[in-house]
Amino acid sequence: MVPVTGTTGTLVLAGTPIGDVADAPPRLAAELETADIVAAEDTRRLRRLTQALGVHTTGRVVSYFEGNEAARTPELVEALTGGARVLLVTDAGMPSVSDPGYRLVAAAVEKDVKVTAVPGPSAVLTALALSALPVDRFCFEGFLPRKAGERLGRLREVAGERRTMVFFEAPHRLDDTLAAMAEVLGADRRAAVCRELTKTYEEVKRGPLGELAAWAAEGVRGEITVVVEGAAESGPEELDAEELVRRVLVREEAGERRKEAIAAVAADAGLPKREVFDAVVAAKNAAKDAAKDGAKDGAKDGAKG
Q1: Average pLDDT, stretch 41-68?
Q2: Please, which of 41, 218, 229, 257 could form a disulfide with 90 given CB 3.0 to 4.6 Å?
Q3: Which residues, including other chains, have CB under 8 Å from residue 153's CB and lie 6 or more apart?
Q4: Which of 280, 269, 271 is nearest to 160 (CA)?
Q5: DSSP line for the chain
Q6: Is 186 exposed, middle or buried (0-12, 13-18, 19+ CB in 10 A)?
Q7: What pairs with residue 228 in β-bridges?
Q8: 159, 246 in Cβ contact below 8 A?
Q9: Tell me: the pLDDT tens digits for 256-279?
């Protein structure tokens, strides 16, 4: 039973080991033993973790993963508003970072429930530190789309990103992803593939994207984090109108509004927004004129027939 205290409870986001169980933060054991509810991405992995740590959960254990996240969130929020201490753990690393958690955090905050965290291991930060790439500024891009066309589109969006980028990837898709990165970002762009971090067979492979793609083609196993160098700083790009329009269309297809897409392309190219806007309008008018001419030619041919 969850205690009803008349005050709201606390949601605790707990980091769990990404490989070596000895990396578990000291507070994790205490939270596991005292939480009223432990919401776990995989209850079987949770059982193995508690056994390895030598602790016993006294609260109710429930599953909380992508498949039931939407349905279970209201139940957990109700417990939190009733005064429960809910501990959220995922299979590895911090909740919400490409794992379940964001939905519950947002719902808890909306109800004025306290949210805190037990800091723990992070594949993102570990890979960054080991990559030997600049880490003063970086961004996390998570998993790229599985479909080849969508993956290329996303990579084109970040091609001009100057911060170091961190990606997660499944081992069976790594070769295709690195090949796509080499195609879009450049075969000479530096990167690091971090495999099985903190585990027995940890490996960090560093080199140009082209070389890493050839290496991955032979097959790679394990949990993968890819770190890619940001684009080199340079002066404004010299792009013709056709390329400016193409870049705007890529962003629109990815879901951006035209106004925002034009602003972003102009910023990346170091150009006034008006110049990009004029190129887009000119291309649109040219397409309309071509369509009209085609219709007229079709009508003439029909009349002759």
Answers
A1: 95
A2: 41
A3: 145, 250, 253, 254
A4: 269
A5: -----SS--EEEEE-B-SS-GGGS-HHHHHHHHH-SEEEES-HHHHHHHHHHHT----SEEEE--TTTHHHHHHHHHHHHHTT-EEEEE-SSB-TTSSSTTHHHHHHHHHTT-EEEEE----HHHHHHHHH-S--SSEEEEEEPPSSHHHHHHHHHHTTT--SEEEEEE-GGGHHHHHHHHHHHH-TT-EEEEEESTTSTT-EEEEEEHHHHHHHHTT---S-EEEEEPPPPP-S-----HHHHHHHHHHHHHTT--HHHHHHHHHHHHT--HHHHHHHHHHHHHHHHHHHHHHHHHHHHHHHH-
A6: middle
A7: 165, 191
A8: no
A9: 899 999 998 888 787 889 999 999
**Which tokens hold the place of 59?**
């609260």
User: For the chain, how many residues are written?
Assistant: 305
